[in-house]
Amino acid sequence: MPETLEELRSRAKSIRRDIVRMTTEAGSGHPSSSLSAVEVVTALYFGGFLRHDAQNPHWPDRDRFILSKGHAAPVLYAALGQSGYFPHDLIMTLRKLGSALEGHPNMTRLAGVEASTGSLGQGLSLGIGHALAARVDKKDYHTYVMTGDGEIGEGQVWEAAAAAAKYKLDNLTLFVDRNHYQQTGAAEDVLDMDPVDGKFAAFGWHTQAIQGNDMEEVLLALKRARAVKGQPTCILSLTRKGEGILQLLSRLKDENFHGKPLPPKYLDEALAEIG
Ligand SMILES: Cc1ncc(C[n+]2csc(CCOP(=O)(O)OP(=O)(O)O)c2C)c(N)n1
Ligand SMILES: [Mg+2]
Q1: Which contacts of 114-117 are long-range, i.e. CB under 8 A and separated by 24 or more positions?
Q2: What CATH number has the domain bearing residue 77?
Q3: Which domain, by its residues, includes 154?
Q4: What pLDDT is recorded for position 109?
Q5: What mean pLDDT comes out for the span 146-165?
Q6: For ligand 1, is residue 241 a contact (CB within 6 Å)?
Q7: What are the beta bridge partners of residue 256?
Q8: Is residue 142 part of a domain?
Q9: For the chain, what is the domain count?
Q10: Is residue 1 part of a domain?
Q11: What's the 1 CA to ligand 1 centre distance in angstroms?
């Protein structure tokens, strides 16, 4: 049963708590990159959009979600753990030697991970493979991909964008997590890709721009994307990097907080801010 709006909002908080707890325990990882993506991932896994079955992870008719910005693995692990793909406690083994919860998702180690990602720029191409396979196999599953906004500076993304439009892949939806930062600074300063939705539209995509940390907007966007025919959809998801712990991050004077776990002494404060 899909969760209600209120349940999804509380689910998002619980996913945020998992992200912060597991990265602090690991002493490494990318909490801020994971936190910006929480509403989208929560809506997919718990809002009735991603057709999936934790008891049957390789079900051929399942919808696919490919986290192309693989360094945000903690948000995926939290969603998979809370969905029952593995015992939830396993999230606390993130990045530990021997754990299947590697720093970047490894599809050969963990059921529910659709693609091994982390080398940025590849997930949309992989998603096209799934979307084309669905067509060849006459299956109605949908493929969702999420990239970062720094990631779309990779040329491969644009080869994929052209191919997806050429093949009219209306069974493919891309989220660009526009959190305005990448590794070394503001995404717009490193390589200005504005207007992101305009570029995808020029490539022949159907586009939407939404407030991606607003659960209601995410749900509406997913509904609209399902109705699009003859074109792939790009949802430009305007988010904040570190959403959920922004007061703490502003006190730490680090809006980007890329690839940094919270030191244990801030954990309680972070969990309290998330609520
Ligand atoms: C091909 C490639 N180049 C560089 C990196 C190193 N790297 C890891 S995360 C990151 C920044 C990604 O920024 P963005 O796509 O905006 O994701 P965010 O963390 O902001 O969600 C970079 C450059 C990588 N993982 N892969
Ligand atoms: Mg970014």
Answers
A1: 114/64, 114/65, 114/66, 115/66, 115/67, 115/68, 116/70, 117/66, 117/67, 117/68, 117/69, 117/70
A2: 3.40.50.970
A3: 33-240
A4: 98
A5: 98
A6: yes
A7: none
A8: yes
A9: 1
A10: no
A11: 35
